[in-house]
């Protein structure tokens, strides 16, 4: 059967009867009904579809779980509907108009951020927006004053996602507000599952939760705020905006996704909703898988029922066995009859279908599209494919220890709202180690955990309101707020992870203790206080969530090591008025600085790749493997300047992509 899928009717998410037109035969790409306007794959996206099937488990595992995915998806839909008129409507996403400079390769065009906080937007306007938006967004969450929200960047059925500045870590972050999480216990379980998995799965190609804000009350909180590393876009947008992706792009995208999948699957976790929208992307080609809400962990003693229902995965990305409900062969008699009544068609060779594609890519494609899941390679096997020769060395790709069953006990119990609330609260405490200790020792307070911080936050707002949005948005009792950054010596250095380029700077960052949760210590990834973390080389021995391989030693980019496309340069202490409007408390975007340097008022500016402003790890990189092992190198060299070119796409005079990070002068006084 390998290699070709056959004509069949496919059910939709909602289980609509087969009133849709028959789906197409070739490559297993279901043809959407003509009336469908939803999130269907674009022509370019289809190139990635075969790969996405790898999200499904290796059928040899023969495990399964019974689940109520149908109800879950139904609820997702109704949540999405009920969110439509929400106060925080995302601004329209406009794609970058200007073509980035080409230096032997195309830069990725990502979404162009709106101008609300760009230099052309007035400070007052920005402050006003922040005021109402933040009031709406944060309500009374204690550590909220650590974050300054900027704009809405995404919306899902469970939450609104805003970009924000973490004043403490001096990084831009994405904050997802998941509201009313206890309306349905199963929604709450989904959220618990997602935040747990993202804590346990730590990999450079999986989005990282940096923090979860502490709710004001343990017993009756309704919303949670999850702080993620900020990504610029998602693969769906990237594919839409770039019709000139090159072979290197495809190769590198697939490579990243496969190594992420290898890691996820070795933890016995199955994402089950992989699609371009759930793969976040940066213009430097970095991809990260997100949205683990539908994911499941499999355990050996799981009863053998049906793991994969036809409600799993968004319809356009389902493997054929899911479309036809015939995972572990075609068991359904009706489906079997229907399939065998179909006319057999000779396959169109891929080389004919995609004449310009790399023959190795086509071979891999053929394997990935095997009709029988048994014939498809696992993620690890796919990484060994000759298509990735020189790029991947499988033994160096990290794997994960299987996740402990105890972590997911809740999946098998009937939970009350109160119980699941308690579990979510407990999970939140993983990001508040001191409180976690008190909780474990039974000495924590149950309500209003940090009134002073709430107070601070409220004061900020009333201050903004009183000054009509024009004044400095700094409450009076923030001690260091008005001091120039360079005059204050940091008494409690920000860890390396949280100050991307600080090591190379002569300017020392300011301690902004008022922004900190006073209970909190610095912590490392997951739930481990930073000081308690073993040296990186030792982390390979740790349990779930720890890289279990030589990745750390091999120079493989860890979360912390991968420079973000919008990392910050520190600025000199003295800022003229222009710089002031572009600086963020002494930090400004690399790319912006670079763009300024290169800007000639036109999009087509030559970029000297060797002079890229992005971090390039020291030492020569002799082979492709080294280049891939170093996140920045692959972007800046193998992909021929995609990052720098993206950075250089600014400077058109129309406002720029990079200006998203610019904070108006009113805000820079916040620090
Ligand atoms: N870390 C991030 N950086 C940038 N954008 C993000 C980030 N996380 C999420 N987004 C954006 O927000 C959108 C919604 O996020 P997400 O998919 O996590 O929400 P959800 O409610 O779980 O969605 P779904 O309806 O698919 O379940 C994403 O499609 C993405 O565009």
Which structural category fits the helices and strands?
A: alpha+beta
CATH superfamily of the domain at 147-465: Transferase(Phosphotransferase) domain 1
Name of the level-1 CATH class of the domain at 147-465 = Mainly Alpha
CATH fold node name of the domain at 147-465:
Transferase(Phosphotransferase), domain 1
Distance between the termini: 63 Å
Beta-strand percentage?
A: 5-15%
Task: Give the radius of gyration.
Answer: 25 Å
Q: Based on the structure given, which CATH architecture of the domain at 147-465 is correct?
A: Orthogonal Bundle
* Tally of contiguous helical segments: 21
Bound molecules: adenosine-5'-triphosphate
Number of strands: 14
Question: Kindly state the mean pLDDT as a whole number?
Answer: 59
Summarize the structure.
The chain is of the alpha+beta class and 671 residues long.
What does this structure look like?
A 5-stranded antiparallel β-sheet has the order 3-4-5-7-6. The chain is built from 21 helices and 14 strands. The protein is α+β, with helices and mostly antiparallel strands. It has a domain at 147-465: Transferase(Phosphotransferase) domain 1 (Transferase(Phosphotransferase), domain 1). It is globular and about 70 Å long. The longest helix has 20 residues, at 247-266. It has helices at residues 43-46, 49-52, 69-83, 123-138, 185-200, 235-241, 247-266, 320-323, 333-340, 350-353, 359-368, 379-383, 417-429, 433-441, 451-466, 577-582, 590-598, 624-629, 631-638, 642-648, 665-668, and strands at 94-95, 111-112, 147-155, 159-166, 171-178, 209-212, 224-229, 233-234, 269-270, 279-281, 287-289, 296-297, 568-570, 587-589. The model is unreliable at 1-41, 44-71, 81-106, 111-130, 448-455 and 457-671 (pLDDT under 50). The structure holds adenosine-5'-triphosphate. Adenosine-5'-triphosphate is lined by residues 76, 153-159, 161, 174, 176, 207, 228-231, 234, 277, 280, 290-291, 293.
